[in-house]
Write a structure and sequence with these properties.
The complex is a heterodimer of chains A (about 230) and B (about 120). Chain A is an alpha/beta fold and about 230 residues long. Helix content of chain A is about 40%, strand content about 20%. Classes of the chains: A alpha/beta (about 230), B alpha+beta (about 120).
Chain lengths: ~230, ~120
């Protein structure tokens, strides 16, 4: 009879991605660029929201750029480029999420210090992107009023991993008989205390609050980065 | 469905550890999977067998150790285990609990090897 023995390992399966993400985060901090990862299911309105965000930032003289992930096509990059901000398309060719390595490849030659904000539009998927750190400073989970109010309960891993929840397509709320209280309650059930914003990218409602949040979070992040950089 | 990428990660890490331990054969791999790790065990087991083919891990068994969600209850002043992942509330007092103490794990705990 053969003898077996047990060896302890303690190796994280996402170690490679986590290490790359950590290196990216350090690079982003050094360059002073605040990176926002947008995650949601397909059809939540991520691209339209990002298009509006980029246009508003550019109009305010704030330097913003975007990386957009899709399985195929560069349709979203073309749409986003209309804002005037630099945009790059990442095609994952079947992969259901973005990984830190892809971000590294696509920002490789980018002069990040010329940017204040970099937005990453993840692949539309409420499951897999939750597990992959992209080195972002802020993760925003989007939920549209046309989806069920209980979506956060169905995809708790994603909503729990986010820092901010954003309810989109508020202009359709009435037509969809959107139950605002129920949606907020569901978000807080899986992520107590999370900041929730409500926007209509089409009408521009709620965009001012979003702009304020971005600026405030970036300022807090900058002062934190400075305080940890000096021991 | 990112279980295929995860399976690649497991096989890679386990093979590395097996070489380090000078193992002749890996019998099984014990993997800790937290409830919030976003992993579907059935899909992972299926992908594992596929990915392990032709590697030193071929024929080994993947054992998934399911770790429940544990949060800190600021009212009860203790760690509490939650029955699911749909409600981050203390099952005793009902206080919302956001501080996760266990549940995000996705790591190889150990290998069972020969000799």
């Amino acid at each position: 009879m053969s003898q077996t023995r047990i060896v302890e390992v303690r190796a994280g399966i996402l170690k490679k991605n986590d290490e790359l993400a950590r290196a990216l985060r350090a690079r982003f901090e050094q360059a002073g660029v605040y990176v926002v990862n947008l995650v949601s299911s397909p059809g939540t309105g991520k691209t339209q929201f990002l298009e509006r965000t980029l246009a508003d930032l550019v109009a305010a003289g704030i330097r913003a750029a975007a990386l957009v992930g899709d399985l195929e096509t560069d349709n979203d990059a073309k749409r986003l480029a209309r804002s005037g901000a630099p945009v790059r398309q990442i095609n994952t060719h079947g992969r259901c999420h973005l990984e830190a390595e892809m971000i590294g490849d696509f920002v490789g030659d980018w002069d990040l210090s010329s940017l204040d904000f970099l937005f990453i539009e993840n692949v539309g998927n409420l499951v897999c992107p939750a597990s992959y750190d992209l080195g972002e400073a802020l993760r925003v989970a989007l939920l549209s009023v046309t989806e069920g109010e209980d979506k956060p309960l169905k995809y708790p891993t994603m909503f729990n991993s986010a820092d901010v929840a954003l309810i989109t397509k508020m202009d359709l709320a009435e037509a969809c008989e959107f139950d605002r209280e129920a949606a907020h309650a569901a978000i807080h059930e899986v992520r107590p205390g999370m900041t929730i914003l409500e926007v209509s990218s089409k009408r521009g409602t709620g965009m001012a609050a979003w702009m304020t949040l971005l600026q405030e979070r970036r300022a807090a992040w900058q002062s934190h980065a400075k305080s940890v950089a000096r021991p | 469905m990112h279980e295929l990428s995860l399976a690649h990660g497991i096989v890679e890490q386990a093979a590395e550890a097996a070489v380090k331990a000078k193992a002749e054969r890996v019998v099984s791999v014990q993997l800790k999977v937290g409830r919030l790790a976003g992993v579907e065990p059935g899909a992972l087991l299926f992908c594992y067998d596929l990915v392990a083919k032709g590697t030193p891990l071929e024929g080994s068994r993947l054992e998934i150790l399911d770790l429940p969600l544990v949060v800190w209850c600021a009212h009860c002043l203790k760690e509490v285990e939650l029955p699911g992942v749909q409600s981050f509330r203390c099952p005793t007092c009902g206080t919302p609990c956001g501080e996760i103490r266990q549940g995000r794990e996705l790591e190889i705990a150990s290998l069972e090897i020969e000799p």
